[in-house]
Automatic annotation (TrEMBL):
Name assigned to this protein: non-specific protein-tyrosine kinase
InterPro entries tied to this protein: AAA_dom (IPR025669), Bact_polysacc_biosynth/exp (IPR050445), GNVR (IPR032807), LPS_length_determ_N (IPR003856), P-loop_NTPase (IPR027417), Wzc-like_C (IPR005702)
Organism annotation: Candidatus Aquicultor secundus
Record-annotated membrane-spanning stretches: 20-39, 178-199
Gene3D superfamilies: P-loop containing nucleotide triphosphate hydrolases
Catalytic activity of the protein: L-tyrosyl-[protein] + ATP = O-phospho-L-tyrosyl-[protein] + ADP + H(+)
Subcellular location: Cell inner membrane
GO molecular function, one term: identical protein binding
Family per record: Belongs to the CpsC/CapA family.
Membrane-related topology note: Multi-pass membrane protein
Keywords on record: ATP-binding, Cell inner membrane, Cell membrane, Kinase, Membrane, Nucleotide-binding, Transferase, Transmembrane, Transmembrane helix, Tyrosine-protein kinase
Domain Polysaccharide chain length determinant N-terminal: 3-96
Residue stretches making up the AAA domain: 270-399
Length: 458
């Protein structure tokens, strides 16, 4: 099972990082094509020579002596193959053909290899010209035989004969286009594989609901796909609306005893969708017949009034400083029946002090009596204390994480910070999930919240 899980995770990483894999493969193919284009073709021409003893074995010669004669011929072939690659022979060939090339450069073109279990030597010349390769191979052979015969003083014990002369090669041996492309493809895949895992290791953002659940030990209440508009006031059946209804259902299961009257919606950092989540949860609860109040408690960067296109000159800050008689004077209606809002009001210089005041406690108590559910759109948890102050006063907290944006360390830090003030975190949601992916790995599932409900009701 563990092996299957590892292979499944490997496949998911490759699918998730498919761009990196494709880039790696393209790099490998580009290198292979470049080699095929820019490397000069190399041609090989070969001759074969037979080395044997000049004196034939008689019929009465013992078998052991015949075997020793063959063994001696094989050793001679090995010795002569070293002579073929020598500088002396290269200089003889250069003088013979009047070549303008250094002996060491010519030596690099020559190879001589004894053919295994035979008395043959194969002499091979590699050159960019097929005709020159043939000429060099044949001249090398003639010069070698001439030099060898002088060295052994025409001894009848050594016989060298040409078995096969060199012919003009018809096709180059290098480069090998098909082989290079296959090797380039393999190298590119390994390179892309490495890129994919490097990016996976460097990427510390969250992308899987299950991963976050294991990381912070808090249940997911659902996923929200990327949405084109912040407010879903229409009662349609698209995936965005359905996702918020699913989260609403999960919250209703959690709140079966009606213990949650004030719900904080927050996130680790800015730009992770906590205000959009708060607005749309307020809308879907109102659509279900709940009397809902949405309060903009972000007294630093308020957004609720702007998104509802309402006047923000009078709101929460007015109540907390005593400039408003009561909450009723700041209530604003919306286009959704059953939903009211209180904007932030003028931005004060001391938001944390106002939120930590006795007037805030009294306000929350009054609002609980007037509404079925009060949703508090609060600032991000990390970096400022505003939300932590309110978390100790509210009944529950809903954390919002953003797909591919929220870091694992930040969601853990948010849980720890809220835990220190005794906040009740009822769950989290993943915001901005891509969908309509062919792979299905990131595809949004309309019933993503079903598992959360199951976990709650166990």
């Amino acid at each position: 099972m563990e092996e299957q899980l590892d292979l499944f995770q490997l496949a998911r990483i490759l699918i998730k990082r498919k761009i990196a894999v494709i880039v790696g493969i393209l790099i490998g193919l580009i290198i292979a094509v470049s080699i095929n284009i820019y490397i000069k073709p190399q041609y090989e021409a070969s001759t074969q020579m037979l080395f044997s003893q000049g004196q034939e074995a008689s019929q009465n010669q013992p078998i052991q002596e015949s075997y020793q004669a063959v063994l001696l011929s094989e050793r001679l072939a090995q010795t002569f193959s070293q002579i073929i690659s020598s500088r002396t022979l290269a200089e003889r060939v250069i003088d013979r053909l009047k070549l303008r090339i250094a002996p060491e450069d010519l030596e690099k073109k020559v190879s001589a290899d004894p053919v295994k279990d035979t008395q043959l030597i194969k002499l091979t010349i590699t050159d960019t010209s097929p005709t020159r390769a043939r000429m060099l191979a044949n001249v090398y052979t003639y010069e070698f035989i001439s030099m060898t015969e002088k060295a052994v003083h025409h001894s009848p014990l050594v016989n060298i004969s040409i078995i096969e002369k060199a012919a003009v090669p018809s096709k180059p041996v290098q480069p090998k286009p098909v082989l290079n492309l296959i090797l380039g493809l393999c190298m590119g895949f390994m390179l892309g594989f490495g890129f994919a895992f490097l990016l996976e290791m460097l990427d510390t953002t969250i992308k899987e609901t299950e991963e976050v659940e294991k990381l912070i030990g808090i249940t997911s209440l659902g996923n929200v796909p990327k949405i084109s508009k912040p407010l879903l006031l229409d009662n349609d059946n698209d995936r965005s609306s359905e996702s918020f209804r699913s989260i609403r259902t999960n919250l209703q299961y959690l709140n079966f005893d009606q213990s949650i009257k004030t719900l904080i919606v927050t996130s680790p950092n800015m730009g992770e969708g906590k205000t959009t989540t708060a607005l749309n949860l307020a809308v879907v609860f109102a659509q279900a017949g709940t009397k809902v109040l949405l309060v903009d408690c972000d007294l630093r960067r308020p957004m609720v009034g702007k998104l509802f296109n309402r006047d923000q000159s009078k709101g929460l800050s007015n109540i907390l400083v005593g400039a408003a008689a009561d909450a009723g004077s700041t209530l604003l209606s919306t286009d959704e029946e059953g939903l009211h809002i209180i904007t932030s009001g003028p931005i004060p210089p001391n938001p944390a002090d106002l939120l930590n005041s006795g007037r805030m406690d009294s306000l929350l108590a009054d609002l609980k009596d007037q509404f079925d559910l009060v949703i508090l759109d609060c600032p991000p948890v990390l970096g400022i204390s505003d939300t932590l102050i309110l978390a100790s006063k509210a009944d529950a907290v809903l954390a919002v994480a953003s797909f591919g944006k929220t870091k694992k360390t930040d969601i853990v830090g948010t849980r720890d910070a809220l835990g220190k003030v005794g906040a009740r975190i009822v769950g989290f949601i993943m915001n901005g999930i891509p969908y309509d992916k062919r792979s299905g790995y990131y595809s949004y599932r309309s019933y993503a919240g079903h598992q959360a409900v199951s976990d709650v009701t166990r």
